[in-house]
Structures are given as structure tokens and as C-alpha cells.
Design brief:
With 446 residues, the protein is an alpha+beta fold. Helices cover 47% and strands 12% of the residues. It has a single domain, classed as Cytochrome P450 (Cytochrome p450). The chain has 17 helices and 13 strands. Strand 7 and strand 8 form a beta hairpin. Helix 9 crosses helix 11 and helix 13 crosses helix 17.
Length: 446
């Protein structure tokens, strides 16, 4: 399958089209929801294109994922489009490499260890109950924007210790910043990237004020930022202010936007499969409140449903790697200096792994079937290998508490005359924001 390349055995490049000079096929990649499917149909599971200013090879499937994740720092290394690298910041964990990345990942992991996660549960439960009561009073709402407020409030409280973060200017700046993450990196003030750069500057100013205020506190709270302020690297050094700011920005990114997408996908999916929602409701009858880690572990059917949500509509479509040593994969040359994107969504729809892959079937994740275990890296909603999402357990925790409390006592139905098609940039969400009628179930349990 793979070999290192020398001058005497150079195979052909993958099929495909590099598009226009400079911009390549970037606009089609961003604007055309069928971009990938058209090329997969035409070229197969490996093809070339040019996006975000770089020649890029799309590699699809569990075998491709396994090769990329297991050859990190040998043939490939993690990278992002130029716009993303700049907007995340030079100190961000996401753009670090090698030993320094490992050192910083170890520090940030303190915020997501089991003890820390368990301490977050009461706060997540309270915020969830408050928002559920709010939505009940509203009766009808466009849900997606409010789900964004919900996740930002939780991220603000648990990650940086800010109350009602969705009501602050930080939230507005975050929205503008996020919209430019995957854009053409031209910093003209009216373009997405230029607007995003200004928003980043504003956010860092806010974060700096938060950090400086927290450093003056004698007793730090149990939020992620407090843990980072107390953390030391392997040489006993604390994180600098500039690094703290970039890492906080990354935490907000990881703990908010993609999680909102996942929650919205759960809510929309359950309108289409009321029988599945009823099974979740019945499972919840086994548990009383408050929620605990042990109770969450016993919610096995809900686990399967959430895994299926993340399989069918993963919040992130794929990840990027830079080729640091030319190699052969499936008979094609992947040249040094090119970019690779591995595909999460397409991996999750592989009919050789997932039976009736286009259908929504939580039972495929039951212990009896365990379809995702048939191949290594066949199920990768949070990526894999050395770069697997650091906050995945935080995301899973919040998703599960939200879904449990929602299905426990509430019902919702789609309002008519709305567009339920998905926009996939910057993350999957319903075009019209998921308009619903929301109410409490007549026979509830506490």
C-alpha cells in the first residue's frame, strides 16, 4: 500500500483537477455541498485538488486514516489552512509540532481529566435546566442560535470562569472570528478574513483582562483557565500571557462551535425518528437526578444514539496534514510539500463498514454489532492519533447531559415552511436555524 519514493520508482499523481491559478478550487470547496461527492464519484477515494492556496490530496477511508495517524511526524505532520493557522495564533496547541506540542498537550489535558470532568457536571446540569425552562416559556423558537448561546455560556463558565458569556461582546467577536477560520487569507477589511483578524484582536484583549484578573485571585476557581494558570511544563515554567491567550481561544473554539453543531444535529434527528427519542425517554426513567458520572455510564442506549448522530453528521468534515516526506499510497505519488485532507464524513458512510450506511440506526453501535470496531479508525468524529481532539470527553459529557435532560421531560416538533437543508461551513447546521415548537411532556418525571 505505501512505500517511500525514490527517483527510480515514481508512481503517478492522483487523478483530479488543480483548478484556477492561486485560488484553485477553494470557492467550490466552500460553496458547493456536493464538492466531495462529485469528485469521489469521478475519481474514487483518492484525488487531487487545490484549496486554500495549496495543492491538496483527498484521502478517504479507514485505511487512509490509519496510515496518516500512524505516520504522524514520519511522512506527514498536522497542519491547517493559512487562514486557520493565523487566526488560531502562533502559540496555539493546534499549530505546534513535535515535543513542544506533546508538552503543551499534557498541560491542557489537566482540564479534561476525569476528576475535572466530574466537577463540571453540576454546572452543565444547571445551565441545561435553565435553558430548557427558557425554551418552554418561549414555546416557539429558532433553536440553533440559542443552542450557540447555551454552549458558549457553559464554555465561558467552565473554561474561563465568565458568567453569561453569551451576553458579552466576547461572544459577538467569537462569531465573527469563527466565520473567517476557513477563508481566503486576504486581510482586506471587508473580507471575512480581515473581519476575523480584527475580531481576534478584540477577543485577545478581553481574554487578557480575564487572565490578569484571575492571576490576582488568592483562591482560583475550578475552571480550565485556573488549571492552566497553575500548570507547569516539564522544565517547571508557567505559560506566558501570550500563550495563555491563544490556548484559551483554542479552548473556546473546541468547546463551543462544533459542539453546537452536534447538539443541533441530535435535536433535528430526533424529530425524524420519534421512536428512537421515545426509547431514550424510557431509558431515562431508570435514573433520578442529580446526574452523576456513574449514571451517565449506564445510559447505554443514549450512548449509541449520540454516536450515530456523530457518525451521520460529524461536526468536523476532516483534518489536514502536510507531507514532509514523499510517499506512495494505493499506487499514487503523494509529493512532499503537498497537503492532505482526511475525510471524517465519508469514512463514516463506508458501506463496507456500516450496513445501510445512509440510514440512522443507533443499534449498529450496540455491543452485539459494534460496526465501528470492524476497522481501526473507521469511526473518527474527533479525529485520531496524536492529534485526536483534546476536549472530546468534555464534548461527549455535555452532549450526553443535554440529551438526557431534554429527552427526559420535553418534546419538540418542526415548524412548517422552513428549509431543513444543511449548510456545512463553517460547521454543519440547518439553513433556517431549526425552527421548532417546544413544550414539556404532560407526564414528566424528576
Amino acid at each position: 500500500m505505501t512505500t517511500q519514493i525514490n527517483s527510480t520508482n515514481s508512481p503517478p499523481l492522483p487523478p483530479g483537477n488543480l483548478g484556477l491559478p492561486l485560488i484553485g478550487e477553494t470557492l467550490s470547496f466552500i460553496l458547493d455541498n456536493d464538492f466531495e461527492q462529485k469528485r469521489l464519484t469521478k475519481y474514487g477515494n483518492i484525488y487531487k485538488t487545490n484549496i486554500f492556496g495549496r495543492p491538496t490530496v483527498m484521502m478517504v477511508g479507514a485505511d487512509a486514516n490509519q496510515f496518516l495517524f500512524k505516520n504522524e511526524n514520519k511522512y506527514v505532520r498536522s497542519t491547517w489552512p493559512k487562514s486557520t493557522r493565523i487566526l488560531l495564533g502562533s502559540s496555539s496547541l493546534s499549530v505546534q509540532q513535535g515535543n513542544f506540542h506533546a508538552s503543551r498537550r499534557k498541560i491542557l489535558s489537566e482540564a479534561f481529566k476525569p476528576r475535572a470532568l466530574a466537577s463540571y457536571i453540576p454546572t452543565i446540569e444547571k445551565f441545561t435546566q435553565d435553558y430548557l425552562a427558557k425554551w418552554e416559556n418561549m414555546n416557539e423558537l429558532t433553536w440553533y442560535p440559542d443552542l450557540k448561546n447555551y454552549t458558549f455560556d457553559i464554555a465561558g463558565k467552565l473554561l474561563i470562569g465568565v458568567d453569561r458569556a453569551s451576553n458579552t461582546s466576547l461572544a459577538k467577536l467569537f462569531t465573527v472570528w469563527f466565520e473567517g477560520l476557513f477563508s481566503i487569507p486576504i486581510s482586506l477589511p471587508w473580507m471575512k478574513f480581515g473581519k476575523s483578524l480584527r475580531a481576534r484582536k478584540g477577543m485577545l484583549n478581553h481574554i487578557e483582562e480575564i487572565v490578569l484578573a484571575k492571576q490576582k485571585q488568592e483562591n482560583l476557581r475550578e475552571d480550565a483557565l485556573s488549571l492552566l494558570l497553575e500548570a507547569k511544563d516539564d522544565e517547571g515554567n508557567s505559560l506566558s500571557l501570550d500563550e495563555l491567550k491563544d490556548q484559551v481561544l483554542l479552548l473556546l473554539f473546541a468547546g463551543h462551535e462544533t459542539l453546537t453543531s452536534a447538539l443541533a444535529s441530535f435535536c433535528m434527528s430526533m424529530t425524524q425518528y420519534p421512536d428512537i427519542l421515545q426509547k431514550i425517554h424510557e431509558e431515562q426513567r431508570k435514573f433520578d437526578l442529580p446526574i452523576t458520572i456513574d449514571k451517565l455510564k449506564e445510559m447505554t442506549y443514549l450512548d449509541c444514539v449520540l454516536k450515530e448522530v456523530l457518525r451521520t453528521i460529524p461536526p468536523v468534515g476532516g483534518g489536514f496534514r502536510e507531507v514532509i516526506e514523499s510517499f506512495e499510497f494505493n499506487g499514487y505519488l503523494i509529493p512532499k510539500g503537498w497537503i492532505i485532507q482526511y475525510q471524517i464524513g465519508r469514512t463514516h458512510k463506508d458501506p463496507e463498514i456500516y450496513s445501510n450506511s445512509s440510514s440512522f440506526n443507533p443499534d449498529r453501535f450496540s455491543p452485539e454489532k459494534a460496526e465501528d470496531k470492524q476497522k481501526t479508525f473507521a469511526y473518527i468524529p474527533f479525529g485520531g492519533g496524536l492529534r485526536e481532539c483534546l476536549g472530546k470527553e468534555f464534548a461527549k459529557l455535555e452532549m450526553k447531559i443535554f440529551a438526557a435532560l431534554l429527552a427526559r421531560n420535553y418534546q419538540w416538533e418542526l415548524l412548517p415552511e422552513q428549509n431543513l437543508a444543511m449548510d456545512y461551513f463553517p460547521s454543519p447546521h440547518p439553513k433556517d436555524g431549526l425552527q421548532v415548537k417546544f413544550s414539556r411532556i404532560s407526564q414528566v418525571f424528576s
